Amino acid sequence: MPSEQSVFVKLDGEESELIFLNIPNPKTELEKIPPPDAFVVMYSVIDKASFQRAEQYLAYLRDQDLGKPVILVGNKVDLARSRVVPYSDGKDKACRYRAKFIEVSVGIKHNVDELLVGILKQIRLKIDQGQLENQSGGNTASEGGGHWYNKSGVVVRASMKAKQMLNSLFRREDSKFKNCEDLHVL
After folding, report:
1. Is residue 76 part of a domain?
2. Does any domain span residue 173?
3. How many CA atoms lie within 13 A of 164 on its CB side?
4. Which range marks the domain in which residue 58 is found?
5. Domain count, the chain
6. How wide is the angle at C-alpha 84 spanned by C-alphas 82 and 86, nearest 5°?
């Protein structure tokens, strides 16, 4: 059974409660709980094995294609002399798996507020994105497809997977790293 903690976060004048479930084995336990609004995958920068487990979880979440925000968090940055996972490795992994990235120290509360606000912002952005995509405005869904057609039969929205694929094909190589650390954009 996952353990639960909650915290209240105020963003843009609106207070929200974030409820965190500590799920020791996401591969087996995610199916037993209601789907969360976001995933926070945390590892210790002083423990290479925890970083490797985090990568496995990122791969699992990507393969599940749940359409939820994913944030990779490197913890214990205050223990700089014991660090074995460089900042760049964490950022690279997050970008590779289309996750956001931040490093924190829960022990000394470094970047913790930024993380909490960032989680809430990612959830709200994803909800807003979903609401925009679900507004039909006179469009009808095609039979069996994932596309939306206007009244003259022209495709106005491709499936999310196709859009992501085209975006990744046509953007510059280094642009995929640009927004990886910005928790205020999707």
Report:
1. yes
2. no
3. 9
4. 31-132
5. 1
6. 115
In a domain? residue 22:
no
Instruction: Report the SS3 class of residue 150.
Output: coil
CA-CA distance, 115 to 12, in Å (whole number)? 15
Q: What is the pTM of this model?
A: 0.75
Confidence of residue 177 (pLDDT cuts 50, 70, 90): low
DSSP summary character for residue 144:
S
Question: How far, in Å, CA of 161 to CA of 104, rounded?
Answer: 32
Two tokens at 128? 């807003």
The predicted-structure confidence for 25-69, as pLDDT tens digits, reads as follows 777 787 888 889 999 999 999 999 999 999 999 999 999 888 999
Q: How far from 186 is each of 117, 129, 152, CA to CA, in Å?
A: 14, 9, 32
The secondary structure of the chain in percent helix, strand, coil, rounded to multiples of 5, reads 40, 25, 35
Find the CATH number of the domain harbouring 64: 3.40.50.300
3-state secondary structure 15-79: EEEEEEEECCCHHHHHHHCCCCCCEEEEEECCCHHHHHHHHHHHHHHHHHCCCCCEEEEEECCCC
Residue 41, strand partner residues? 72
DSSP, collapsed to helix, strand or coil, labels residue 155 as strand
